[in-house]
Write a structure and sequence with these properties.
alpha/beta, Rossmann fold, seven-stranded parallel beta sheet, 7 helices
Length: 242
């Protein structure tokens, strides 16, 4: 029987990004009941309101286990979840010689330690045929200088999804690995966003950069397929091979 997202309860952790907004919007159109979680409750509330009046919001800090536990308690009281998606990230980029331990730990809290704690506190709340979905990234497969932390955390996410899929079975656990996606985040990373995109598109087999809707479609495909678990779905336009 086809699996539908209608009336499914979905929690998106790290809901302030363009990708999170696209996913939340599409989930609402699918008929899902969406909650957005983030460590800054004011920004999280604003992100939820921007998507739709029916979107709930809660506080959740991936670097604070007590915050994760408290959020799980709220979800338990509300009746549980069908899917949990974490799109949270924290940049810890820079040459190895100048990397600070604090930045490294923040990056691992967002992408690795935090998701493990999400599994610890939320897995028991996931309904039958539900899932956990985490976000990896292209840097794990196409590392480059100055991105050691990004490569390490993203690679860990993919391994984590497989390990949790085995331990938490039959609850499914998967990962999405986006490539270069056209989001506002690049405005603070590259001097000329459009020129950077043109360069990326010229070398990628898909001949374009990604759109948040591409990532949303991939994420939702993993949520609705009850026979996929332990996998990483690459949404990078073939950039791993170029």
């Amino acid at each position: 029987m086809p699996y539908s997202l209608k009336d499914k309860r979905v929690l998106i952790v790290g809901g302030g990004s363009d990708i999170a907004a696209a996913l939340a919007t599409d989930l609402l159109e699918d008929g899902a009941r969406v909650t957005i979680a983030g460590r800054n409750i004011e920004r999280t509330a604003a992100a939820a309101k921007a998507v739709g009046d029916t979107v709930r919001h809660i506080a959740l800090d991936l670097s604070d286990e007590e915050s994760i536990r408290a959020a799980a308690d709220q979800v338990r009281v509300a009746g549980g979840l069908d899917h949990l998606v974490s799109v949270a990230t924290e940049r810890g980029n820079g040459p190895v010689a100048s990397l600070e331990r604090r930045a490294l730990l923040a990056a691992f809290d967002a992408k690795v330690v935090g998701p493990i704690l999400l599994a610890k506190h939320f897995a028991s709340l996931i309904a039958e045929e539900g899932s956990l979905l985490f976000f990896s990234g292209l840097a794990a497969w196409r590392p480059k200088p100055g991105h050691v932390a990004m490569a390490a955390t993203n690679g860990s996410v993919s391994t984590l999804a497989s390990a949790l899929a085995v331990e938490l079975a039959p609850t499914r656990v998967n990962a999405v690995s986006p490539g270069v996606i056209d989001t506002s985040n690049w405005d603070t990373v590259v001097p000329d966003r459009q020129e950077f995109f043109r360069h990326v598109a010229a070398s990628a087999p898909a001949r374009r950069v990604g759109d948040p809707s591409d990532v949303s479609a991939a994420a939702r495909a993993l949520l609705i397929n009850p026979y996929i678990t332990g996998e990483t779905l690459h949404v990078d336009g073939g950039a791993r091979w170029s």
